[in-house]
Design a protein that fits this description.
Helix 1 runs antiparallel to helix 14, helix 7 packs antiparallel against helix 8 and helix 13 crosses helix 14. The chain has a 3-stranded antiparallel beta sheet with strand order 1-2-3, with no helix packed on it. By secondary structure, the protein is mainly alpha-helical. It has 2 domains: 366 residues, no CATH class; 57 residues. A hairpin with a 2-residue loop joins strand 2 and strand 3.
């Protein structure tokens, strides 16, 4: 990817392809059940289009937001999301669906605050950790207040209860701590605690424990808890290599519950075959590469942490969804990003893609190209504002990589890539002043030399007079000595 804006164009392309594929598959998988319910076959499709349009508007706004504005409003946005999570638990305010009280329904439009909370905690956590990754930062400063705030949000989501969103939130927090450079032993301890807590949550309620038992023993309850997983695998097998054809799925005829949502990947495998499933996985794999590449090339520590965390969150959610559809993981209810039906999930995921695309435009090579007039046709059509070069704030800790030399895990490690960039960042003002003084001295020498060269012919012409004047000025020189001798 030699082109400076290649990362930006790839992020936009992947977002558009996944969204279009999702709209087509939602229409294909939801129309049959809508007709059976004596409703319009386009009802779910229309709702998905509306939220996709809202998501693309959010995508465009995210491209225009300056980085300093993101950081300034990170904590207020997080505080608002916590308030919404608390309000949705109140009967009469929050709406319950499939055993989970996690939606606001206003004028027929549903809003899931837990999806918003994942974005805000990723943004605020990246801001906090980027501000505290200094040379003298302690372990307590890295963990507090991020981990207590994450525990508060986790408890509010568990009370709904929503196991899938809880797992997704845990992925966000773990990614923040890992890329911030938390010591490996402490990180593994937190991972172990998170896994143990998720296991306890999975076994404390009837429907969760039934799904876990069905995963380990699919034949125990084939018509109950294990029904969805079995039907999903049947759909994948029915698709073969090339699939049955778009719109020709048999599982969506009420054989596979939630075919348009949690198990839409099974419909993709049935209608588009193994080739279609691999294409979807390939798009997410390409996004993983591009997202982590953007994070590693970003100079701003906030953008590094946020982009890497957002990438891991989206890829982790896609991996879990595909994993339980093919039978590698227990069913958790996580959606396939941008593909599964779900208004709030689609809009917030497109917002995340927009923020990642914004970070791609803040790569040093991209900034240089944009300010040189190489903004490209897409940016001119969208009228995207040009990004500003990163200027380290006092609160920003320097570092050149995701695990820089100044992070707790990179400190003392000669392989950590943060030393050179950190030194350049800290000494940038002094180095600039030194270069200016050197340039002034060079100009002064050049001016003096030019004057000397310009007066040389005159000295040559009047050499004797100049020599006599020099001797006269030197009262203690040879002229004076000769006069005394005479």
């Amino acid at each position: 990817m030699a082109r400076p804006l290649a990362s930006f164009h790839l992020v936009v392309t992947i977002a558009v392809l996944l969204t279009v594929l999702g709209l087509v598959m939602v229409l294909s998988s939801s129309s049959v059940e809508a007709v059976a319910a004596e409703d319009s076959p386009y009802r779910m499709f229309r709702s998905q289009i509306v939220f996709a349009c809202v998501g693309f508007v959010a995508f465009y706004i995210a491209l225009q937001i300056p980085v300093r504005t993101m950081r300034r409003f990170a904590f207020p946005a997080f505080a608002v999301s916590v308030v919404l999570l608390a309000l949705v638990l109140i009967p009469g305010i929050g709406t319950e669906s499939q055993g989970t009280r996690g939606w606001f329904v206003v004028a027929g439009i549903s809003l899931q605050p837990s999806e918003i909370a994942k974005i805000t905690i990723a943004m605020w956590g990246a801001h906090v950790l980027a501000s505290r990754r200094g040379e003298n930062s302690t372990l307590k400063e890295m963990i507090v207040p991020l981990v207590p705030a994450a525990l508060l949000v986790t408890i509010l989501i568990v009370l709904q209860p929503d196991l899938g969103t809880t797992v997704s939130l845990i992925i966000v927090v773990l990614a923040l701590l890992w890329f911030a450079g938390l010591p490996l032993k402490i990180f593994l301890g937190i991972v172990g605690t998170a896994v143990a807590s998720a296991t306890v949550l999975a076994l404390t309620a009837g429907y969760r424990s039934a799904r876990v038992r069905a995963f380990f023993n699919p034949g125990e309850d084939p018509q109950g808890a294990g029904y969805q997983a079995r039907q999903a695998r049947f759909s994948l097998a029915d698709g073969g290599i090339w699939g049955r054809g778009l719109g020709q799925s048999r599982a969506k005829w009420s054989y596979l519950p939630n075919a348009h949502n949690d198990f839409i990947f099974a419909i993709i495998g049935e209608e588009l075959g193994f080739i279609g499933g691999v294409a979807v996985i390939g798009l997410f794999a390409l996004f993983a590469y591009v997202g982590l590449r953007i994070a590693m090339r970003s100079v701003d520590p906030f953008l590094r942490l946020f982009t890497a965390t957002a990438t891991v969150w989206i890829i982790g959610q896609a991996f879990i969804n595909v994993g339980y559809v093919v039978g590698l993981l227990p069913v958790t209810g996580l959606q396939l990003p941008l593909v599964s039906a779900g208004g709030t999930s689609t809009a917030t995921t497109l917002l995340m893609f927009g923020l990642i695309a914004n970070a791609a435009r803040h790569e040093p090579e991209a900034i240089a190209a944009l300010h040189a007039g190489q903004d490209g046709r897409l940016a001119r059509i969208m009228k995207i504002r040009k990004p500003e070069a990163y200027r380290p704030a006092r609160s920003d800790a320097p570092g050149g990589s995701l695990h820089g030399a100044n992070s707790p895990r990179g400190r003392g490690n000669p392989r950590a890539g943060g030393t050179a960039v950190a030194t350049r960042t800290r000494r940038a003002p002094a180095a600039t002043a030194t270069r200016r003084r050197a340039a002034d001295s060079a100009r002064a020498r050049d001016t003096g030399g030019a004057r000397a060269r310009g007066s040389q012919p005159e000295r040559t012409k009047n050499g004797r007079a100049a020599s006599q004047n020099t001797r006269r000025r030197d009262g203690n020189g040879r002229t004076g000595e000769r006069g005394n001798r005479r």
